Amino acid sequence: MSEIIAPPSVRALAREKGINIEKLAEKLGRTTIAREDLKDNAKRESVTTDHSGYWEVDHTYYGPVTEEPVSRFAMVASANLSAANAMIPQVTHHDRADLSAIEALRASWKSEGQARNIKLTALAFQVKALARTLRKFPRFNASLSSDGKTLTIKGYVHIGIAVDTPHGLMVPVIRDVDRKGLWQIAEEIADLATRAQARKIKPDEMGGASMSISNLGGIGGSSFTPIVNPPEVAILGLTRTEISAVWDGEAFRPVPMVPLDLSYDHRVINGAEAARFVTYLARLLGEPRRMML
To answer: Is 3 part of any domain?
Structure first.
Protein backbone atom coordinates (compact mmCIF):
# COMPACT_ATOMS: atom_id res chain seq x y z
CA MET A 1 0.00 0.00 0.00
CA SER A 2 1.27 3.52 -0.78
CA GLU A 3 2.06 6.10 1.89
CA ILE A 4 -0.80 6.78 4.28
CA ILE A 5 -2.25 10.31 4.22
CA ALA A 6 -3.40 11.59 7.63
CA PRO A 7 -3.23 15.06 9.27
CA PRO A 8 -0.76 15.48 12.17
CA SER A 9 -3.66 15.85 14.62
CA VAL A 10 -5.11 12.52 13.49
CA ARG A 11 -1.72 10.80 13.82
CA ALA A 12 -1.33 12.25 17.33
CA LEU A 13 -4.78 11.03 18.33
CA ALA A 14 -4.01 7.59 16.89
CA ARG A 15 -0.84 7.38 18.99
CA GLU A 16 -2.80 8.43 22.06
CA LYS A 17 -5.38 5.69 21.44
CA GLY A 18 -2.75 3.11 20.54
CA ILE A 19 -4.06 2.73 16.97
CA ASN A 20 -1.66 1.72 14.22
CA ILE A 21 -2.45 4.02 11.28
CA GLU A 22 -0.92 1.71 8.67
CA LYS A 23 -2.83 -1.36 9.89
CA LEU A 24 -6.08 0.61 10.08
CA ALA A 25 -5.64 1.88 6.51
CA GLU A 26 -4.93 -1.65 5.31
CA LYS A 27 -8.03 -2.90 7.11
CA LEU A 28 -10.17 -0.16 5.52
CA GLY A 29 -8.56 -0.64 2.08
CA ARG A 30 -7.63 3.00 1.50
CA THR A 31 -4.73 5.43 1.97
CA THR A 32 -6.51 8.37 3.62
CA ILE A 33 -7.36 8.29 7.31
CA ALA A 34 -9.58 10.88 9.04
CA ARG A 35 -10.52 11.49 12.67
CA GLU A 36 -13.86 9.72 12.12
CA ASP A 37 -12.03 6.54 11.12
CA LEU A 38 -10.41 6.44 14.54
CA LYS A 39 -13.81 6.69 16.24
CA ASP A 40 -15.25 3.96 14.01
CA ASN A 41 -12.26 1.76 14.77
CA ALA A 42 -12.76 2.29 18.50
CA LYS A 43 -16.39 1.12 18.13
CA ARG A 44 -15.28 -1.99 16.25
CA GLU A 45 -12.60 -2.76 18.85
CA SER A 46 -15.10 -2.40 21.70
CA VAL A 47 -17.17 -5.35 20.46
CA THR A 48 -14.28 -7.76 19.90
CA THR A 49 -12.56 -9.97 22.45
CA ASP A 50 -9.12 -9.23 20.96
CA HIS A 51 -7.79 -6.22 22.86
CA SER A 52 -4.15 -6.53 21.74
CA GLY A 53 -4.49 -3.29 19.78
CA TYR A 54 -4.31 -1.36 23.04
CA TRP A 55 -0.57 -1.96 23.24
CA GLU A 56 0.23 -1.67 19.52
CA VAL A 57 2.04 1.60 20.17
CA ASP A 58 4.91 3.24 18.29
CA HIS A 59 7.25 3.53 21.28
CA THR A 60 9.91 5.35 19.24
CA TYR A 61 7.64 8.40 19.32
CA TYR A 62 8.45 8.83 23.02
CA GLY A 63 12.20 8.16 22.95
CA PRO A 64 14.95 5.70 21.96
CA VAL A 65 14.18 1.99 22.24
CA THR A 66 15.79 -1.37 21.50
CA GLU A 67 14.06 -4.58 20.46
CA GLU A 68 14.79 -8.23 21.10
CA PRO A 69 12.93 -11.27 19.77
CA VAL A 70 10.81 -13.36 22.15
CA SER A 71 11.91 -17.00 22.11
CA ARG A 72 9.52 -19.70 20.95
CA PHE A 73 9.82 -21.29 24.39
CA ALA A 74 8.74 -18.05 26.08
CA MET A 75 5.84 -17.56 23.64
CA VAL A 76 4.46 -21.02 24.39
CA ALA A 77 4.68 -20.36 28.14
CA SER A 78 3.08 -16.94 27.68
CA ALA A 79 0.14 -18.38 25.77
CA ASN A 80 -0.45 -21.01 28.45
CA LEU A 81 -0.29 -18.52 31.32
CA SER A 82 -2.51 -16.00 29.49
CA ALA A 83 -5.15 -18.67 28.89
CA ALA A 84 -4.93 -19.81 32.51
CA ASN A 85 -5.34 -16.30 33.86
CA ALA A 86 -8.27 -15.59 31.55
CA MET A 87 -10.19 -18.84 32.02
CA ILE A 88 -9.51 -19.97 35.60
CA PRO A 89 -11.17 -18.14 38.53
CA GLN A 90 -8.10 -18.08 40.76
CA VAL A 91 -7.87 -17.25 44.45
CA THR A 92 -4.70 -17.10 46.56
CA HIS A 93 -4.58 -18.16 50.21
CA HIS A 94 -1.66 -16.78 52.27
CA ASP A 95 -0.15 -18.28 55.42
CA ARG A 96 3.22 -18.93 57.10
CA ALA A 97 5.02 -21.95 58.52
CA ASP A 98 7.58 -22.30 61.32
CA LEU A 99 10.84 -23.76 59.96
CA SER A 100 12.66 -24.01 63.31
CA ALA A 101 12.57 -27.81 63.41
CA ILE A 102 13.58 -28.13 59.76
CA GLU A 103 16.55 -25.81 60.25
CA ALA A 104 17.61 -27.82 63.32
CA LEU A 105 17.45 -31.08 61.33
CA ARG A 106 19.39 -29.58 58.45
CA ALA A 107 22.11 -28.46 60.85
CA SER A 108 22.30 -31.85 62.58
CA TRP A 109 22.46 -33.70 59.23
CA LYS A 110 25.01 -31.39 57.63
CA SER A 111 27.92 -33.82 58.04
CA GLU A 112 25.85 -36.65 56.54
CA GLY A 113 25.00 -34.41 53.61
CA GLN A 114 28.68 -33.72 53.05
CA ALA A 115 29.39 -37.44 53.13
CA ARG A 116 26.63 -38.05 50.56
CA ASN A 117 27.70 -34.98 48.56
CA ILE A 118 24.10 -33.74 48.73
CA LYS A 119 22.91 -30.35 49.98
CA LEU A 120 19.75 -30.90 52.01
CA THR A 121 17.79 -27.71 51.36
CA ALA A 122 14.59 -26.52 53.01
CA LEU A 123 12.93 -26.98 49.59
CA ALA A 124 13.41 -30.76 49.85
CA PHE A 125 11.36 -30.74 53.08
CA GLN A 126 8.75 -28.48 51.48
CA VAL A 127 8.40 -30.79 48.46
CA LYS A 128 8.05 -33.83 50.74
CA ALA A 129 5.49 -32.05 52.92
CA LEU A 130 3.48 -30.99 49.87
CA ALA A 131 3.39 -34.60 48.65
CA ARG A 132 2.05 -35.78 52.01
CA THR A 133 -0.54 -32.99 51.99
CA LEU A 134 -1.70 -33.95 48.49
CA ARG A 135 -2.28 -37.50 49.73
CA LYS A 136 -4.33 -36.09 52.62
CA PHE A 137 -6.36 -33.81 50.29
CA PRO A 138 -6.75 -35.70 46.97
CA ARG A 139 -9.03 -33.07 45.47
CA PHE A 140 -5.94 -30.87 45.06
CA ASN A 141 -4.22 -33.71 43.18
CA ALA A 142 -6.64 -33.49 40.28
CA SER A 143 -7.36 -31.98 36.86
CA LEU A 144 -10.62 -30.55 35.57
CA SER A 145 -11.69 -31.39 32.01
CA SER A 146 -11.89 -28.54 29.50
CA ASP A 147 -15.70 -28.62 29.56
CA GLY A 148 -15.72 -28.51 33.37
CA LYS A 149 -17.76 -31.71 33.65
CA THR A 150 -15.15 -34.23 34.83
CA LEU A 151 -12.61 -34.07 37.65
CA THR A 152 -9.77 -36.58 37.29
CA ILE A 153 -8.27 -37.58 40.66
CA LYS A 154 -4.67 -38.76 40.27
CA GLY A 155 -3.32 -41.84 42.00
CA TYR A 156 0.27 -40.59 41.84
CA VAL A 157 2.08 -37.60 43.33
CA HIS A 158 4.43 -35.75 40.98
CA ILE A 159 5.71 -32.28 41.95
CA GLY A 160 6.78 -29.66 39.40
CA ILE A 161 9.63 -27.33 40.39
CA ALA A 162 9.69 -23.99 38.57
CA VAL A 163 13.25 -23.08 37.57
CA ASP A 164 14.25 -19.59 36.41
CA THR A 165 16.69 -19.95 33.49
CA PRO A 166 18.26 -17.51 31.00
CA HIS A 167 16.04 -18.97 28.26
CA GLY A 168 12.78 -18.78 30.22
CA LEU A 169 10.85 -20.49 32.99
CA MET A 170 11.01 -24.28 33.02
CA VAL A 171 9.04 -26.66 35.26
CA PRO A 172 10.73 -30.08 35.45
CA VAL A 173 8.87 -32.69 37.48
CA ILE A 174 9.95 -35.00 40.31
CA ARG A 175 8.01 -38.26 39.99
CA ASP A 176 6.44 -40.25 42.85
CA VAL A 177 7.62 -37.85 45.54
CA ASP A 178 5.49 -39.53 48.20
CA ARG A 179 7.53 -42.72 47.80
CA LYS A 180 10.96 -41.06 48.03
CA GLY A 181 13.12 -40.03 50.96
CA LEU A 182 14.46 -36.55 51.67
CA TRP A 183 17.98 -37.29 50.41
CA GLN A 184 16.72 -38.56 47.07
CA ILE A 185 14.35 -35.62 46.70
CA ALA A 186 17.17 -33.15 47.47
CA GLU A 187 19.43 -34.87 44.95
CA GLU A 188 16.78 -34.79 42.22
CA ILE A 189 15.96 -31.11 42.86
CA ALA A 190 19.64 -30.18 42.41
CA ASP A 191 19.97 -32.36 39.31
CA LEU A 192 16.86 -30.97 37.60
CA ALA A 193 17.82 -27.37 38.38
CA THR A 194 21.33 -27.86 36.98
CA ARG A 195 20.11 -29.53 33.79
CA ALA A 196 17.35 -26.93 33.34
CA GLN A 197 19.96 -24.17 33.33
CA ALA A 198 21.87 -26.08 30.65
CA ARG A 199 18.68 -26.82 28.64
CA LYS A 200 19.20 -30.55 29.10
CA ILE A 201 15.78 -31.38 30.49
CA LYS A 202 14.03 -34.06 28.42
CA PRO A 203 10.42 -33.51 27.23
CA ASP A 204 9.15 -36.44 29.32
CA GLU A 205 10.56 -34.74 32.45
CA MET A 206 8.35 -31.67 32.04
CA GLY A 207 4.70 -32.74 32.20
CA GLY A 208 2.20 -34.57 34.37
CA ALA A 209 2.67 -32.76 37.69
CA SER A 210 0.12 -33.09 40.48
CA MET A 211 1.03 -29.57 41.62
CA SER A 212 3.89 -27.17 41.03
CA ILE A 213 6.03 -25.10 43.39
CA SER A 214 7.26 -21.63 42.47
CA ASN A 215 10.09 -20.86 44.90
CA LEU A 216 11.34 -17.26 45.07
CA GLY A 217 13.05 -17.73 48.43
CA GLY A 218 16.52 -17.31 46.97
CA ILE A 219 15.56 -13.93 45.49
CA GLY A 220 13.26 -12.23 47.99
CA GLY A 221 9.74 -11.05 48.63
CA SER A 222 7.22 -11.61 51.39
CA SER A 223 4.30 -12.96 49.29
CA PHE A 224 3.02 -13.16 45.73
CA THR A 225 0.19 -14.63 43.66
CA PRO A 226 1.44 -17.52 41.49
CA ILE A 227 -0.69 -18.42 38.46
CA VAL A 228 -2.18 -21.93 38.38
CA ASN A 229 -0.45 -24.01 35.72
CA PRO A 230 -3.21 -26.01 33.95
CA PRO A 231 -4.17 -28.81 33.87
CA GLU A 232 -3.18 -28.60 37.57
CA VAL A 233 -5.76 -27.02 39.90
CA ALA A 234 -3.37 -25.39 42.38
CA ILE A 235 0.17 -24.07 42.75
CA LEU A 236 2.27 -23.34 45.85
CA GLY A 237 4.37 -20.19 46.02
CA LEU A 238 7.27 -19.81 48.46
CA THR A 239 9.21 -16.64 49.30
CA ARG A 240 12.11 -15.77 51.55
CA THR A 241 12.14 -17.16 55.08
CA GLU A 242 12.33 -14.34 57.64
CA ILE A 243 12.91 -14.23 61.37
CA SER A 244 9.67 -13.14 63.04
CA ALA A 245 8.76 -12.45 66.67
CA VAL A 246 6.26 -15.17 67.69
CA TRP A 247 4.43 -15.24 71.04
CA ASP A 248 4.82 -18.64 72.73
CA GLY A 249 2.44 -17.91 75.62
CA GLU A 250 5.06 -16.37 77.88
CA ALA A 251 7.33 -14.28 75.67
CA PHE A 252 8.15 -13.39 72.11
CA ARG A 253 10.83 -15.58 70.53
CA PRO A 254 12.61 -15.30 67.16
CA VAL A 255 11.23 -17.88 64.70
CA PRO A 256 12.17 -18.53 61.04
CA MET A 257 8.86 -18.26 59.18
CA VAL A 258 8.37 -19.11 55.50
CA PRO A 259 5.45 -17.48 53.62
CA LEU A 260 3.12 -19.94 51.86
CA ASP A 261 1.04 -18.67 48.91
CA LEU A 262 -1.45 -21.19 47.53
CA SER A 263 -3.30 -20.21 44.34
CA TYR A 264 -6.16 -22.50 43.38
CA ASP A 265 -8.92 -23.00 40.83
CA HIS A 266 -12.11 -21.93 42.58
CA ARG A 267 -14.21 -24.14 40.30
CA VAL A 268 -12.67 -27.17 42.03
CA ILE A 269 -11.53 -25.91 45.43
CA ASN A 270 -13.33 -23.62 47.86
CA GLY A 271 -11.77 -21.28 50.40
CA ALA A 272 -12.31 -23.53 53.42
CA GLU A 273 -10.62 -26.46 51.66
CA ALA A 274 -7.66 -24.25 50.73
CA ALA A 275 -7.32 -23.03 54.31
CA ARG A 276 -7.35 -26.60 55.67
CA PHE A 277 -4.83 -27.68 53.04
CA VAL A 278 -2.34 -24.93 53.90
CA THR A 279 -2.87 -25.40 57.66
CA TYR A 280 -2.02 -29.09 57.33
CA LEU A 281 1.02 -28.29 55.15
CA ALA A 282 2.26 -25.72 57.69
CA ARG A 283 1.82 -28.25 60.52
CA LEU A 284 4.00 -30.79 58.66
CA LEU A 285 6.67 -28.16 58.05
CA GLY A 286 6.57 -27.25 61.74
CA GLU A 287 6.93 -30.89 62.77
CA PRO A 288 9.00 -32.42 59.91
CA ARG A 289 9.49 -35.81 61.61
CA ARG A 290 5.76 -36.45 61.08
CA MET A 291 6.20 -36.35 57.30
CA MET A 292 8.86 -39.06 57.49
CA LEU A 293 6.71 -41.57 59.41
So the answer is: no
